């Protein structure tokens, strides 16, 4: 692993400790919505989102790691899911999504890596471009505590770090909540 990839945690999933249902319930995701799972990993949040949005809705599962996207595509095929589009995409580059096209976006356990690599601006400008006005964007991060699960303590970010990132890019914070023994979530709404 190169230094550049040092905090990217390719292939790691929080599935065993973080409930996708709890995260999605906090975002208010509903039938017919278009959902973005940014840095989806094995796609376990996307799979639950796909059953919430239903056939009138759509889920975009994006990750830079091809093996993860292959895993998502395999599950999509095996389960006969028709509303998930899984694509290899680098969140620091232009995303393969239209302007103002996403009702609800989630980025779980990824942002601390962009903070460590000084890539927040590129990422958040794209997130802002693709989320609809008044759309929801939620960041989930590992709590800034010493724990065996998750990234090293030094690269963990606090709820106030996350809130200030969101505010800086035009998202108004709605709620900061505990969502697992290891994770917190900050939900926000895109404002003009
Ligand atoms: C710790 S995993 C979290 C995966 C999933 N969101 C979860 O909570 O289980 C971080 C994910 O972010 C992805 N990632 C890191 N940098 C990325 C980038 N620049 N663009 C897209 N995905 C990225 C990694 O490949 C990895 O799948």
From TrEMBL:
<dbReference type="Pfam" id="PF13847">
    <property type="entry name" value="Methyltransf_31"/>
</dbReference>
<dbReference type="GO" id="GO:0032259">
    <property type="term" value="P:methylation"/>
</dbReference>
<dbReference type="GO" id="GO:0008168">
    <property type="term" value="F:methyltransferase activity"/>
</dbReference>
<keyword id="KW-0808">Transferase</keyword>
<feature type="domain" description="Methyltransferase">
    <location>
        <begin position="30"/>
        <end position="143"/>
    </location>
</feature>
<dbReference type="InterPro" id="IPR025714">
    <property type="entry name" value="Methyltranfer_dom"/>
</dbReference>
<dbReference type="InterPro" id="IPR029063">
    <property type="entry name" value="SAM-dependent_MTases_sf"/>
</dbReference>
<keyword id="KW-0489">Methyltransferase</keyword>
<protein>
    <submittedName>
        <fullName>Methyltransferase type 11</fullName>
    </submittedName>
</protein>
<dbReference type="InterPro" id="IPR053173">
    <property type="entry name" value="SAM-binding_MTase"/>
</dbReference>
